[in-house]
Amino acid sequence: MYQERAFELHTHLYGCLSQDDLRWLAHRREPRWHIFRNTFRETYGMDPNLDDIFAEDRRQDLRQYSVYESVGNFPEFQCCFDFVISVSHVDPEEVYEVARRVSRRQKEPWAEYRMLLGPQWALPDFLERVRSICEGFEQEGRDSYLAMSLWRGGHLAEDQYVALKKLMAESNAVRHRLVAIDFCAREEGFPPSEKASLFERVDRDNRADPGSALAILYHVGESFQDKSLESAARWVYESAQLGAHRLGHCIALGQHPEEFRGTVRKEILPERIAQLEFERQSGFYVSFSRESEYDEELSRLEAKRRSFLQEVAAVADANETEGMVITNWPSLDIEYTEDRIRRIRIFQDELMNRIKQRNVVLEVCPTSNARIAAVQTHPVHRFVQSGLRVVVGADDPGIFDTTLEKEFQILAEDGLGSELEQMIEQSRRSVSTNMSGRNA
Ligand SMILES: [Zn+2]
After folding, report:
1. 389 has which bridge partners?
2. Ligand 1 center to 13 CA (angstroms)
3. Which of 17, 151, 218, 262 could cross-link to 156 by cystine, CB 3.0-4.6 Å?
4. How far apart are alpha carbons 380 and 39 in whole angstroms?
């Protein structure tokens, strides 16, 4: 048995909801079914049958609507996710009860639950919910903790962080239960480098007042639709370098490049430039063999970027371009030839080697990665071979119908043995309060 010994360090509070929880939520307040219905219609081209969906004789249908079991079908996953969204209202009483329910049935000796509240929540509402979750955990008295997921876009994360620190000073429950900040949801368009100043600030605050230190958790390298495999691997490395304590998924860092053989990926222009600059500076050549080739291609791409920005400025109002987020960058084709595959493998090995030098922990979620990212061979094998620190998480056990126990069993069936014991030991050492220096 693994679950009674391993610490759960990568899971989401609302991803833990069971079918009974969903039934309870739906009875508590009228579900916002239009959310689920719209997604369902877009995905399957028909309406879901929600009549008495929580009745005993419709258990199978309820499961079909709320549990995601396919592979590589993101719209289907979104449907199951939106089922949970539809029955939730995220009011303070609800999050308090959800925290209590989830904590009460926790099998692991310690678990850290992430929670994302979208940018639609004003700061006072955001804080009220944080406080309620922490009080719910406090009420149960188990080792259940909160890692608050902050918003990736714009400057909201800074404001949320400052407000959280203030709340910690006011509330004992929050000071005790809030142990980390996290970044999740959509990665594309939000380079880790944009978080540099926030990460520095957290590090400074952690040193100045270890008693309220917060760990930095960061989902990265999980989804990279707008970029190459090598750029996504670089993002994992950059996140580690910027001072994140634990990295979620990191698939691109260890996914076998052979899985991309013969395919062509699109990479947006600024990412291609960033990747070529990184390759030239680090000497880890993936795209070319000689520095002069990098210089030539980079000046060509820089010119392309300048003319694109000029075009954008010509059509937009001068005031609008200030701080504007560009969503329609031109893309370049990246071909996964034998030569590129060979070089990427070496590139990933070099990055893993560098990450190993830092005190960073990788969180792997086998079921989630197999079903959402559709990896054929899980990168965990390369992580382990490279000597990286790895822990296991169930991510959204409710939506995937899994448990941490099952996640360990999957890895055992996949050929891992003594490594699993090391991961359990690693999970004890990698709790947020250790990584942030709060326990020091
Ligand atoms: Zn996650």
Report:
1. 361
2. 10
3. 151
4. 33
Cα of 249 to ligand 1 centre, how many Å? 8
Classified as helix, coil or strand, 344 is helix
At 388 the pLDDT is 98
For ligand 1, a single-atom ion, the residues with CB < 5 A are 395
CB 172 within 8 A of CB 135: no
Q: Alpha-carbon distance 423 to 381, whole Å?
A: 13
**Residue 198 and residue 101 share a domain:** yes
Helix/strand/coil for 394: coil
Structural domain contains residue 56: no
End-to-end CA distance of the chain: 30
11 alpha carbon – ligand 1 mean position (Å):
6
Q: Which of helix, strand or coil describes residue 265?
A: strand
Query: Of 104-108, 230-234, 324-328, 371-375, which range is least confident?
Result: 324-328
What is the spatial distance between Cα 333 and Cα 383, in angstroms, rounded to a whole number? Answer: 28
Give the Å distance between the CA of 396 and the centre of ligand 1: 7
Distance 395 CA to ligand 1 centre (A): 5
Q: How many A from CA of 71 to the centre of ligand 1?
A: 17
Where among 304, 335, 366 does a domain terminate? 335
CA of 437 relative to ligand 1 center, distance in Å: 23
Q: What is the mean pLDDT of residues 9-23?
A: 97
The CATH number of whichever domain residue 172 belongs to comes to 3.20.20.140
**Domain range for residue 292?**
265-335
Residue 252 identity (one-letter amino acid)? A
Domain's final residue, options 335, 370, 394: 335
